[in-house]
Amino acid sequence: MSCSALLRLYSGDHHRLLFVYSTITLRLLTSRPRRGRGLRESLRLLQLPEDEVSSHAMVKEAYLRMAKLYHPDSGAPTADAALFSQIEEAYRVVLDHLAQQKASSQNTQEEEDEKVKGHAPQHRHYLNYEGVGSGTPSQRERQYRQFRMDRATDQVLEYRYKSMEKAAAEEGAMVLRDTRLRSKKIKITQAVERLVEDLIQESMARGDFRNLSGAGKPLSKFEHNPYADPMTHNLNRILIDNGYQPEWIVVQKEIRETIEKMRNRLHKVRARLGNPMKHSEQIKWQEHCAIFSDELAKLNKKVDDFNLIVPLMSWQMVHFNMNKELEKVLNADQQYRMEKEKGNEKKLMEENRNAAAFQQNTWQRFIMWIKNLLKCKDV
Question: Are 185 and 280 in the same domain?
């Protein structure tokens, strides 16, 4: 019905006309729109089912999928600006339809809550839920559940805090008690040690330790140990008497002797070469270094075997490094050359001093001979 028809129908009553117009407008805004050609066409363009409208996420996913295919800037062979504008318009139409559906459902829920609230007795609003919350019963129930969760969380936190305070107080008391007992024990031990030391010193001053049996003799190697098994004690004594050593001790000794021989051999080779080395000497030095590297690799394998049989991890050995070993050899050679130069300088100075003394003695003997000769002539 148009506005002119309403004016002709209610020409004398403007208030009634205004009420009827506002009622019609409100019904048009709040009424659920029917699926017309525009909505069906939009769903078809977005490739969505026409029997039911999908969720917002599905609509957005469909729009993005179509945009990747038909957007002018997508670079796809199916890009079409006109078709993409239609898809974008269809996307807006479907979103508006979903928004209207959501608004209408919210209005319906609010009307039902208002009906329930209007029929419920007013004096019973705060009889349940411990007087917590406001609004409809469903809203008050949700608020009361949240209130109970918060209260339970606070109670748990308070209980844990009190338990931690109690445990900390007990631990502090135990630590203080242990500290006192330990300090007391240390004081007693120190007092006893001082007393024993004083008694020993007094006995030594009086000479009580003189003329003791076994004085100046070595301690007995196989003195009986009451805490050891006799069989184990006898077996150990037999092994030691026959020169037995554990395998890991033998391997450790071999490793140390081998690395020492290798270092000495390489040091002798470097000492025979000049400083600085010539080209031929450098080639010879590199050959000896290569041989040393191969021997060092074999020695590192023996170190691995030693680490597998050693009884304690703290006694294990690390691999020998080629660069560090060469650095040790070069430093030893440099120190040897410096000491040799100092020895040569000292020897030269000694020879010069001896030559000067010999020359001075010769000159003195010559003077004495002339004096004796002159005395003989005078006589």
Answer: no
173 burial via Cβ count (<10 Å: 0-12, 13-18, 19+): exposed
Asked whether residue 330 is domain-assigned, the answer is yes
Out of 215-219, 256-260, 338-342, give the one with best mean pLDDT.
256-260
Write down the H helix ranges in the chain. 3-9, 14-30, 37-45, 56-70, 81-119, 137-206, 230-241, 247-272, 279-309, 322-378
Alpha-carbon distance of 227 to 28, in angstroms, equals 106
> In Å, how far are 152, 263, 281, 282 from 286, measured between CA atoms?
80, 15, 9, 6
**By residue range, what is the domain housing residue 328?**
247-361
What is the spatial distance between Cα 316 and Cα 44, in angstroms, rounded to a whole number?
78
Say how many domains are in the chain: 3
Tell me the per-residue pLDDT of 66-79, one tens digit each, with 9 for 90 and over. Answer: 888 888 887 778 88
Q: What is the DSSP letter of 355?
A: H
Tokens of 156: 């748990």
